[in-house]
Design brief:
Blueprint (H helix, E strand, L loop, with lengths): L1 E4 L4 H11 L4 E4 L17 E4 L7 H9 L4 E4 L9 H6 L3 E3 L6 H17 L1 H9 L17 E5 L3 H12 L3 E5 L5 H5 L2 E3 L2 H7 L2 E4 L13 H5 L5 E5 L8 H10 L2 E6 L21 H6 L5 E3 L8 H21 L5 E2 L1 H4 L1
Parallel strand pairs: 1-2, 1-3, 3-4, 4-5, 6-7, 6-9, 7-8, 9-10, 10-11, 11-12
Antiparallel strand pairs: 5-13
């Protein structure tokens, strides 16, 4: 099959080429997929999209006119895809349901440790020959309470790691995970988790129910000085409410690998330009905030699995008209 691969970086090409081994004609395109770039898929039977590509009704209609039959996502999330429009136009949607939950979970813990022990600030000081310890005081993770919201495979890994640190782990999820319980977590209500946790770590998908799950009301239920970690989806938190929480001191530190409006920022080098997003710029002014650019997935193991599953979806569709890991409106009901 001829596949138009959007939002391509050098590492995407390396891993996809290795997994593909010449099976399909992969056409690599650097731009993000949206209504202004969708024309580039002309002549392709499939498009391969990433997490910040736009696949709304308008884009899907354009792809359908170009006779695209398959949208294969090289990510787990699919909130950026209009599945109703895909169904209307008879376009199959596939995804990578999991790659390496360990990579994402470990990144969450890395953010916790960085914020707690002020590693980002300490490293900058030492580079300037400043070896003062003032302002770098942390706390023992052992004995603290960590709240894990969303206990799929990533949340389960986080619960297991934090149990290993000697933490008390609380969990919230509409669908309790027995393996998470075996890892030492106790399921509680969201309100109990928020009011009892020293660290709150988010690992839930973005759905209508989880949009702005952490808002003004949720922040008021948290312990003063709580550490908040979000590596799920940016819109799970209300960023403006978070900023107010930081200013009031209720949120003692914040670690983000995702951001509500990240599609205009992440996966691009903007070092020679200005950031026009005033909300994001405000976040960067806080010394107790650490932000990474959606890199939690970025390990050799995860990229290998993403590429392998993506090619498997394409090959299955070419052979049978169905994919290994489909996403459809019906499957969400």
């Amino acid at each position: 099959m001829r596949v138009a691969v959007f939002s391509t970086k050098s590492y995407d090409k390396t891993y996809l080429d290795s997994a593909n081994a010449g099976q399909h004609q992969l056409v690599y395109l650097e731009p993000r997929l949206d209504s202004t770039t969708a024309f580039a898929a002309d002549g392709a039977q499939a498009v391969c999209a990433f997490v910040n590509d736009i696949l709304d009704a308008e884009v899907i209609a354009i792809l359908a006119k170009q006779r695209v039959q398959l949208i294969t996502l090289r990510c787990a999330g699919f909130n950026h895809v209009d599945l109703e429009a895909a169904k209307l136009h008879g376009i199959t949607v596939a995804r990578v349901p999991e790659y390496s939950p360990h990579s994402v979970a470990e990144h969450a813990v890395a953010l916790m440790l960085t914020l707690n022990r002020k590693i980002h600030r300490a490293s900058a000081r030492v580079r300037e020959a400043n070896f003062s310890l003032d302002g770098l005081l942390g706390f023992d993770m052992h004995g603290k309470t960590v709240g894990v919201i969303g206990t799929g495979k990533i949340g389960q890994c986080v619960a297991k790691i934090m149990s290993g640190f000697g933490c008390r782990v609380l969990a919230f999820d509409p669908y309790p995970n027995q393996q998470c319980i075996e890892a030492g977590a106790s399921y509680v209500t969201l309100q109990t988790l928020l009011s009892s946790s020293d660290i709150v770590s988010l690992h839930c998908p973005l759905t209508p129910e989880t949009h702005h799950l952490i808002d003004e009301k949720a922040i008021k239920q948290m312990r003063a000085g709580v550490m908040l970690i979000n590596i799920s989806r940016g819109a799970v938190i209300d960023t403006r409410a978070i900023i107010r929480g930081l200013k009031s001191g209720v949120i003692g530190s914040l670690g983000l690998d995702v951001y509500e409006e990240e599609e205009n920022l992440f996966f691009r080098d903007l070092s020679n330009t200005f950031i026009h997003d005033d909300v994001f710029a405000r976040l960067l002014t806080f010394p107790n905030v650490v932000i990474t650019g959606h890199q939690a997935f970025f390990t050799d193991e995860a990229l290998t699995e993403i590429a392998s599953t993506t090619i498997a979806n394409i090959s299955a569709y070419e052979l049978s008209g169905s994919v290994v890991h489909p996403v459809s409106v019906e499957r969400l009901v």
